[in-house]
């Protein structure tokens, strides 16, 4: 009897072991199945016209705007491989500029902030600022890029001295009866530049001119104005925005940018009496037809979350007040909690514009080592740009991928969605890379980027200075 039970136990253990070694992959710890074929949709025809008039609704006191990934709005793309690779290269250039700007701000604490420009807004290069919504400004629909790393909302305006190509007609101030310019000597103009925008009145006090420059040489120049803004069916009177007369950069055909930073001129601050300084989003994937939502207002009952919201405090930074800073306290890979002396000291920015998350060098090294330990047995592929942990998965239909969890002060946790673990450098999966990268230097600021925020409800409560995470399968409906 005892021998029989021992044999049964041995056979059961052997069966479990064989299942674990399925397809030659060491499959231990917490993992999820990634179906590679679901990512081979790059050549599907995209309906660019569907991005020009996105949906909105009002529910339980919250205003909800449909959010889409900008790649769904390109229409026909001739070379997806080139686009995916270019996105990484430009993302790296953007982060380098951002880090340089942060260092300059830190070394210029004693300077008069009116003599400086705003910190680099996140990801303005083509292929980096990815998510768009539609708003109505002065009676016209405008598709704008959503950016938590920028304060000023702006659109291209007629007459335009120099404008990039956009899909919609340019905003025409003369066609809007509610349009008014902001005077240069007004309190609105002065407060708008308290965070460092460049202001130049000269002898003309009738307009509040602005310049916002970006790290890649892109910029917008024009004047500040008031106009009537509709966020879905929610009206906002006397909304202050930038009317861009001279704009340079590849903004993917969008009409402009929506600033969701913490500065006084941001949309969040301007609508604080209406929405309480509270907004959230769920960033969708790049799959054709995928959509998410930008929710203005703090009623969590409108979310479709599948896990409770866990909160962490926002770390104040008076020199970089636009950005949202968090304290990264841990990373868990496949059920293994990593150890590193940088945890608890790793202040990071959470950003809707940057594509790939950047971690302090020692933390990234630990993540990479544990990931390779658990995701073993697969053929490797060459590194590409900022991504140095790559595989050739072209021979596989699906793979088990270790779950990655980012942990923050206050026991908050963000479970990285399965679609945010790997970045496809090539559409045939012959070069698939871990979608995380190391900072170049240990004193740089980490960034939690949009690729890892996919299918998460990320909530921003600026009044209570806290930020929350919950899992959600993004959909506008």
TrEMBL record:
Keyword hit for Signal: yes
Signal peptide: 1-27
Keywords assigned by UniProt, alphabetized: Signal
One MF term in the entry's GO annotations: aspartic-type endopeptidase activity
UniProt record, GO biological process: proteolysis
Domain Peptidase A1: 131-470
Catalytic residue positions: 147, 351
One Pfam family matching this protein: TAXi_C
Alphabetical list of SUPFAM superfamilies matching this protein: Acid proteases
Family: Belongs to the peptidase A1 family.
Name of the protein this chain belongs to: Aspartyl protease family protein At5g10770-like
Source organism of this protein record: Durio zibethinus
Underlying gene: LOC111275457
């Amino acid at each position: 009897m005892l021998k029989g039970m021992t044999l049964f136990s041995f056979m059961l253990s052997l069966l479990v072991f064989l299942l674990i070694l399925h397809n030659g992959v060491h499959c231990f710890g917490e993992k999820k199945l990634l179906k590679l074929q679901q990512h081979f949709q790059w050549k599907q025809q995209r309906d660019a016209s569907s991005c020009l008039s996105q949906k909105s609704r009002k529910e339980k006191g919250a205003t909800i705007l449909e959010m889409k990934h900008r790649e769904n709005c390109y229409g026909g793309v001739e070379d997806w491989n080139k686009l995916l690779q270019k996105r990484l290269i430009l993302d790296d250039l953007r982060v380098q500029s951002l880090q340089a700007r942060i260092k300059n701000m830190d070394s210029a604490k004693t300077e008069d902030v009116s003599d400086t420009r705003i910190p680099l807004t996140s990801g303005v290069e083509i292929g980096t600022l990815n998510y768009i919504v539609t708003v109505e400004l002065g009676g016209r629909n405008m598709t704008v890029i959503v950016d938590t790393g920028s304060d000023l909302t702006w659109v291209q305006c007629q007459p335009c001295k120099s404008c990039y190509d956009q899909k919609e007609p340019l905003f025409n101030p003369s066609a809007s009866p509610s349009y008014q310019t902001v005077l240069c000597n007004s309190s609105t103009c002065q407060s708008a530049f308290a965070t460092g925008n460049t202001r130049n009145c000269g002898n003309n006090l009738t307009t509040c001119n602005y310049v916002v420059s970006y790290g890649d040489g892109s910029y917008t120049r024009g004047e500040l104005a008031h106009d009537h803004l509709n966020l879905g069916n929610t009206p906002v009177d006397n909304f202050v925005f930038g009317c861009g007369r001279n704009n340079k950069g590849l903004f993917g055909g969008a009409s402009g940018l929506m600033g969701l930073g913490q500065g006084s001129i941001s949309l969040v601050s301007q609508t604080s009496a209406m929405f309480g300084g509270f907004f959230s989003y769920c960033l969708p994937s790049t799959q054709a037809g995928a959509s998410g939502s930008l929710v203005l207002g703090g009623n969590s009952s409108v979310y479709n979350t599948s896990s409770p919201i866990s909160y962490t405090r926002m770390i104040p930074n008076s020199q970089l007040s636009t950005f949202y800073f968090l304290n990264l306290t841990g990373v868990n890979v496949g059920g293994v909690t990593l150890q590193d002396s940088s945890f608890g000291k790793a202040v990071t920015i959470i950003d809707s514009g940057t594509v790939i998350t950047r971690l302090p060098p020692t933390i990234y090294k630990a993540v990479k080592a544990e990931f390779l330990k658990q995701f073993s047995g697969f053929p490797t592929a060459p590194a590409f740009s900022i991504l140095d942990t790559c595989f050739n998965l072209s021979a596989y239909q699906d793979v088990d991928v270790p779950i990655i969890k980012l942990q923050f002060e206050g026991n908050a946790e963000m479970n990285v969605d399965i679609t945010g673990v790997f970045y496809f450098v090539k559409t045939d999966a012959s070069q698939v890379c871990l979608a995380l990268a190391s900072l170049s230097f240990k004193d740089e600021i980490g960034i939690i980027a949009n690729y890892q925020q996919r299918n998460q409800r990320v909530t921003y409560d600026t009044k209570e200075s806290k930020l929350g995470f919950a899992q959600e399968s993004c959909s506008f409906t």
